[in-house]
Amino acid sequence: MRRRRNVKIVATLGPASDSREMIRALFLAGADVFRLNMSHGSHDELRERHRLIREIELETGRPIGIIADLQGPKLRLGSFADGRAVLKAGQRFRFDMQDAPGDATRVRLPHPEIFAALREGATLLIDDGKLRFRVLSVGEQVAEAEVVVGGEVSDRKGVNLPDVILPLRALSEKDRNDLEFACRLGVDWIALSFVQRPEDVAEARELVDGRARIIAKIEKPAAVQKFEAILAEADAIMVARGDLGVELPVQSVPTIQKRLIRHCRAVGKPVIVATQMLESMIAAPVPTRAEVSDVATAIYEGADAVMLSGESAAGKYPVEAVTTMNAVAEAVEEDGTWRELIEASRSPAQHGVRDAIVVAARAIAETTDVRAIACFTHSGSTAQLVSREKPQVPILALTPKRSTARRLTLVWGVHCVVVEEVERFKHAVISAVRVALREEFATEADRIIVIAGIPFNVSGSTNILRIAPMQERLIFEGEPG
Description:
By secondary structure, the protein is of the alpha/beta class. It folds into three domains: 8-72 and 169-335, Phosphoenolpyruvate-binding domains (TIM Barrel), CATH 3.20.20.60; 84-160, PK beta-barrel domain-like (M1 Pyruvate Kinase, Domain 3); 353-477, Pyruvate Kinase, Chain: A, domain 1 (3-Layer(aba) Sandwich). It has 18 helices and 21 strands. The protein has an eight-stranded parallel beta barrel, surrounded by ten helices. The model has no long low-confidence stretch (mean pLDDT 94).
């Protein structure tokens, strides 16, 4: 099964998409990677979804990536005596640690770490920013504030603090348990919420211990400020625009998105654009024109993947949402302006043999009639470097490791195929040609580029490039050994 686009689609599974028939329909409609949201569902439910994905993978013969998205620490208010209260702009309001239900003058805030971090003048947001407060004074277990933007507030609404770095680790006790469960289950990626500093990613990496790759979710102002250090520590990035739009001025989110994508492209690490991409399709069978433009913008910028959340997890039209996203992606990538923008925003190559090889492969593809670039990869890094170059021809990633193939389903332009181990370069050429023919990337009359590393099956050894006519397999197959 070959996609007719380069950008990948991530679909979140949930109550609307937890049957085998629905997951299969989502995959056939265009989903390349499935996201398991650890904030919702029991371990038994998540285990069942994982099993169904792997069954569909076996049935279709195509690798499918799975992301386990950790919840992260959740900061919430306590409850109100009447279930809710109405606050007016300009009034005083107190947050404290008392157990008593709240009212229009105060409410419980059961997070001592917040009081430890708050400072006079800091902003405190409730219910995704619908209510806004300015902190007037802070004690050990109390904060006096002024209501800047009022309204109705109800029990256990979420709390955001855009001005402070909280003394919280990204991994709560629940997250640690979920992480271990997901790794034992065999997911391909762990998405880490509430990242504020590179040390958060390092802590998760130690716990993962090589069993999965790590996606750092950028959803806090502190993460934006320390992005380059976080990017160096992570394997991939998710631009989580929902929380970013709460904690930062909403008008700054598009420029942040563009900057983060460009940084990720420069170092060859996957980047996902997420949150509210086709939000209206939770309840409607068609998206708004603005949502279509939003998806298209991420594709024009060169994002590796675009993600559906509630649209596929809890919406009325999950298959239609994936179908729409797939159609938008195909239409954008047929536009000549898309290719111009991709090439104009390409970053200079880094120094090294591997970088020189993949840059040469891309340049040859631009100036000859080769049909694809086939790369043999053990860890996936060579395929990611080829993807970084955004070549005009398809990328075939050939690997003997199924885990590598699954991880590469998140990477722009990469078509992953699991092949047998090879020990000699001529066997690599034969294998690449056979795959290109079988998967319909080339015909008998075409040529492909084959890149690999000698010695084989050693990560980071890419050092050879060959332009291979498809008939070359007949010559090699006739040779002894």
